[in-house]
Write a structure and sequence with these properties.
108 residues; alpha/beta; Rossmann fold; 44% helix
């Protein structure tokens, strides 16, 4: 089972993006992967609007991401600044990156 870090939007339309992240999680599980989404977990205890706490969450997510077999980037809603950091980190460590779409031109 591949360990996969999922990159999907969080900031901005948080309600929509959390719904989308859950769809990404389900998609990854259906592929037989073991996904991890730090941006769904860490905001439960960290304030994403507090720059210090946001930075802490991003750094912790990147650290876990370095242990993954694959970085799956879900791009139906574009690539955010936070996602770009994950992509950059994956490239730095030569981690495989896979870009995915799961929506058929539909909004959630």
């Amino acid at each position: 089972m591949l360990k996969v870090v999922i990159e999907s939007p969080f900031a901005g339309d948080v309600v929509r993006n959390v719904k989308y992240a859950r769809l990404c999680l389900a998609d990854s599980l259906k592929r037989g992967e073991a996904p991890f989404l730090s941006h769904l977990l860490y905001p439960l205890v960290l304030d994403d609007n507090d720059p210090k706490q946001r930075k802490q969450g991003i750094e912790a997510g990147l650290e876990w991401g370095r242990k993954a077999d694959l970085r799956a980037v879900y791009i139906d809603y574009g690539i955010t600044k936070g996602m770009k950091m994950g992509i950059k980190d994956a490239k730095k460590i030569r981690q495989p990156i896979e870009y995915r779409r799961i929506l058929n031109n539909e909004e959630i």
